[in-house]
Amino acid sequence: MDTEPATTAPAVSGDLCGLSRCRRPLPAQTGRGARYEYCPDRRWDYDGKTLSCRELGDAEKKLTAVFGRGPADAPFAAQLSATLSAAADPLEALRAAVASTHTYLTEQYTEAQERAEHAEAQALEAHGQARTAQAAAETARRSQAAAERKAADADERAGRTEREARKALDQAAADRQTAAVARGAVQQLEEENARLRAELGETSGKASAATARAERAEAQHRAAVEERDRLRAESEREQQEWAAERTRLAEQVERLSTDYAVRLDELQSAQAAALEGLREGYGAEIAGLNRSLGELQGQIADRERQLQEATARKEAGALAEEHARHTAAEALQLLDLGADPAKVRTRLALALRAPSDEARKAARVILDIGSALGVCNVAVDHHDGIIPRDQLSMTALNRLAKAGVTKQDELRRITDLGREALPLASRMSR
């Protein structure tokens, strides 16, 4: 497919383009310099690329110099086209496979990365819980040590008091009141000692439970770290496999692309030689056919223009006849309903006049607005051309004013153009 810039026709030099498939008249050279050998602006589209006549002409010269010129072979050209199509299919399939593999491996890598991040977050959370449990265990151990110190102090106080009580009993056996007080103190100290021992046991239990929780959290942390390491190793392995597969596919694509390019160059060379033979063998015949085709197209264009003119005259006559019948019927109906004869004559004169282009456009706008035709007819017949309030929306009134059906400064008053368009809109609605 060739493309040309849309410019005005330049002066021609009388020479033709050197490309065998082009051969268009070349423009005259302006200023100093060699004459044009190829079209300066014409372009040819091939496989997504744009080639000039000079590029194709240079390639054509090289092919002619290598292979020479020979008669065209139509079956060979067909076989050449089929071979080109068949050679393009494997490369396209390979490209699709590469794209599909790339998408799959990218999705697998993304999922593995998300699993690794989730495991890492769980590991961090378990590590935090382990640190919290260790802190609680340390607090429990400190509390246990403090309780043990209190119990030792209580034991020491109890022993000292007991020794003092025995000494007091030995020294003042007769003093019963002092002995009773000593016994009460000993009993109180024993009760305090028992309470402290109970607190020590409870604290020891809490410390043991905290230590067990810390050990469980540490085990969870180790398991999470192992899972994270496993997922990372799996992700790295998948990345390595994906890289190896991508390298293999890239090498295969490169190899097939090289083979395809070599084969394509060979086939294009053969095709250019065949096309050159066709051009030499049938150039004169094609030129004659082109001249005959141009004359035939001119005759067809003249016939189509005459047919269009006749059709337009026929349609205009039919529309005028229908317009006259409809206008007379409306006038009689208005007179039967008791309308003002002067208004009927005015409306009849407007309707019988050949509709203008503005009236046709206004009629189409009236029909586009659902209820505008009936509302405007009622306004002309019964309200002196003023549309009652709340009959049409402000949007519809603005559209009518823009089309000239109503006035711009008084949206509800129908203009002469609107009165002319109403009968036409009524006929168009049928």
Layout of strands and helices, then pairs:
Layout: E1 2-3, E2 12-16, E3 25-27, E4 43-46, E5 49-52, H1 53-67, H2 74-171, H3 176-336, H4 341-352, H5 357-368, H6 372-382, H7 394-402, H8 416-429
Helix pairs in contact: 1-3, 2-3, 3-4, 5-8, 6-8
Describe this structure as you would to a colleague.
- With 430 residues, this protein is mainly alpha-helical.
- The chain folds into 3 domains: 1-68, no CATH class; 90-258, Helix Hairpins (Orthogonal Bundle); 320-429, no CATH class.
- Helices cover 77% and strands 4% of the residues.
- The protein has helices spanning 53-67, 74-171, 176-336, 341-352, 357-368, 372-382, 394-402, 416-429, and strands at residues 2-3, 12-16, 25-27, 43-46, 49-52.
- It has a 3-stranded antiparallel β-sheet with strand order 1-4-5.
- A hairpin with a 2-residue loop joins strand 4 and strand 5.
- Helix 2 (74-171) packs antiparallel against helix 3 (176-336).
- The longest helix has 161 residues, at 176-336.
- It is flat and about 155 Å long.
- The chain starts with a strand and ends with a helix.
- Residues 70-77 have low confidence and may be disordered.
